[in-house]
Amino acid sequence: MAPMIIINFKAYKEATGENAVKLAKACEAAAKKAKGRAKVTVAVQAADIFRVAAAVDTKVVAVFAQHIDANGQGKSTGFITAEAVRDAGASGTLLNHAEHKITDIAKRIATAKAAGLATVVCAANVAEAKAIASLTPSPDYIAVEPPELIGGKVSVSKAKPEVVSDSVAAVKSAGSSIKVLCGAGVNSGEDVKKALELGTEGILVASSVVLANDPEEALLGLIEGVA
């Protein structure tokens, strides 16, 4: 299966509203040029899911929510429900990002799965990755991102390769089929290549694509690291 490349739009102005559509289309263009070498996914703000999903071919670029709450439909004013993001066009969600930590991870995973959403749960280190891998239900992906490297110019796969490889080993030791991604400071195809060599099945990035002068070319540069 092709490696996963998730572009987290965060709440950057360059990735909000019509800018989110423009950026998603750039990611779609890169994905088409890559001809299936990578599974490209964009994680957008809840308010932009519908417009982005309507603007791109979601078979080429999957659309994920950046977060969901565990609240079900009904009396849940102000919460983001799994059903709402699914019906807006999302096929998955991030959870527990370093910028939005949660404590009831298992409950959120269960909520997402009940709505048919794929789950990518972020972990700050090996211990957290191992703990998440032991949860029931388990997520589809665990993305290891040391917070101190997020948004930087040095990739975790170079700065702390042991965090990546040890996380992969910890998740596999749990006897699960969870796929491991890595993020934080991933800026080049070489960074992606190293991440895959360390045993991951993809990456989670943000600013290296979102804030690039040419997001399409930036994403293609990352895909170059895929064998």
Rg computed from alpha carbons, rounded to a whole number of angstroms: 16 Å
User: How many DSSP helices?
Assistant: 10
* Amount of helix: 25-40%
The portion of residues forming beta strands comes to 15-25%
Helix- and strand-based class? alpha/beta
- The ordered string of helix (H) and strand (E) elements is EHEHEHEHEHEHHEHEHH
Low-confidence stretches: none
The order of strands across the largest sheet is: 1-2-3-4-5-6-7-8
Overall pLDDT metric: 95
Total beta-strand segments = 8
Query: What's the story with the biggest beta sheet?
Result: 8 strands, parallel, barrel
> What form results from the Cα inertia axes?
globular
Q: Termini separation (Å)?
A: 12 Å
Give the helices and strands, then pairings.
Elements: E1 4-8, H1 18-34, E2 39-44, H2 49-55, E3 61-65, H3 82-88, E4 92-95, H4 105-114, E5 118-123, H5 126-133, E6 141-144, H6 156-159, H7 161-173, E7 179-183, H8 189-197, E8 202-205, H9 207-210, H10 215-223
Helix pairs in contact: 1-10, 5-7, 8-10
Question: Care to describe what's here?
Answer:
The model has no long low-confidence stretch (mean pLDDT 95). The chain has helices at 18-34, 49-55, 82-88, 105-114, 126-133, 156-159, 161-173, 189-197, 207-210, 215-223; strands at 4-8, 39-44, 61-65, 92-95, 118-123, 141-144, 179-183, 202-205. The chain is 39% helix and 17% strand. It has 227 residues and is α/β, with parallel strands linked by helices.
Brief characterization of the structure:
This protein is 39% helix and 17% strand. Helix 1 packs parallel to helix 10 and helix 5 packs parallel to helix 7.
